[in-house]
Amino acid sequence: MNTRIGSAVLLVATGGVTGCARRTDDETRAAFEAVRAPAAGEGRGRRARAGRRTSPTTAPGDDPWQRVNEVLGESIALFGLGRDEAAVTELANRLCAVAPEPKPTESGPTYVCFPDPPVELAGHAFTLELAPSGVIGLQAGDLTHDASRSLVEQVRQATARHCATPFHALERDASDEHAADFHICPVDGGSTLAVGRTPAGRDRWLVSVAVLASS
Q: What average pLDDT score do residues 48-67 get?
């Protein structure tokens, strides 16, 4: 199982956004790659203003969820202007501890890094992934079944402020204790917030929270 948000972790959530039940990585990848680019010229003036934002200044030791909500807030605002590779690259350079090199994927370049300031919740460090194709999110890996379920619930409660309507669960096989489990809600600008977990080996789980650009 790939441990990057741009892989099956968020592809599961994206498949749910389209209203289709997804059971394999190939199916969910196809759903993710179907995300369309915005019309040419859409929001150019607003993108320029968004690019001049300063980085968040949350001090270590403050509310641990503040940093998560700052990252999500910036991501929601950015995707509200459309998908702009230059804007996503600039955001990666500002949010990452070290400017990341783009990694090629089937959906285009993806940036993966540790954020600065770091994001650590319940003793778990989160990595940041940014994909101009339509995903920006945080992910923590190597959690047990119970720890991942608890952390997902905490993340969902802490990030619900971004939702225009309450979170709702995506369809899943309730009889399969290893089935991926995601909740989504619509956010400002037409994007979707996805919070959930997906299995990554024997009693190992990945927890992610991400903004998915609108289609």
A: 54
Count of domains for the chain:
1
- Give the rounded distance of the alpha carbon of 81 from its chain centre: 17
| Per-residue pLDDT reduced to its tens digit, 26-42 | 333 333 333 323 333 33
| Exposed/middle/buried for residue 198 (C-beta within 10 Å: 0-12, 13-18, 19+) | buried
User: Rounded distance, CA 107 to CA 85, Å?
Assistant: 12
Beta bridge partners of 212: 135, 192
pLDDT of residue 151: 95
pTM above 0.85, yes or no: no
- Pair 93, 128: CB distance under 8 Å: no
- 47: in domain: no
